[in-house]
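WARN retry 2 of 3 for item q-0093 after timeout on previous attempt; input resubmitted unchanged.
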Amino acid sequence: MSSRPLIGISGRSRTAGEVNIQPDALRDCDIDLYFCDYGRGVLAAGGLPVYLPTVADPADYAERLDGLLLSGGADIAPARYGQEIRAELYTPEPARDAFEMGLLDGAARAGVPVLGICRGIQVLNVHGGGTLHQHVAAHASFDLPSTLVHRVELVEGSLAASLYGAEVQVNSLHHQTIDRLGDGYDITGRSDDGAVEAIESQRRPWIGVQWHPEMLDSRDTDPAFAWLVEAAST
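OK item q-0093 returned
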């Protein structure tokens, strides 16, 4: 039997018609979508990725998983953090919001380590009662997914700094950033323009990064994936 720790990875739901799967008779069928590079990063670090269908109760996953990776994707519904929808908001996915909040509830009860990437760091923050800037257009470089476009300074003594050093060059594929920090978290990384790029829980083995390490050439040796797998192995 494999001794690799099981790392659950969240995805997103769509209909077949929304992603142009043929034939047309299937267009109303529900499908779950996952970007494979998250799984590749987990595999390279020694873990076994497990994609988490949204049709299940998220509470049922917690006792079966050794670690959890919250992936990137759609904006969180502003009602989750007490705001009205702004015009610049990308289409939210309330069902995914509820599913991932449920995953975190289960992970908290079971003591499961969590890595949040892009949307994932925002889910961690909102789960802790924090808020988001709904649109920070100048921060994104969507046309450069694999390019290092800015520097992130990391707080000395933090988990993030122990993984990456005092600073790290990252890509930038997000138009939202953390505003008010959630309860029980520390900000441990900021970009050149002051945007929050890394947070860590004060009580749990949970860390979030705003960039996309799975899309960089360094994915297979990225320390965040290595940390998650190691933490899930203990």
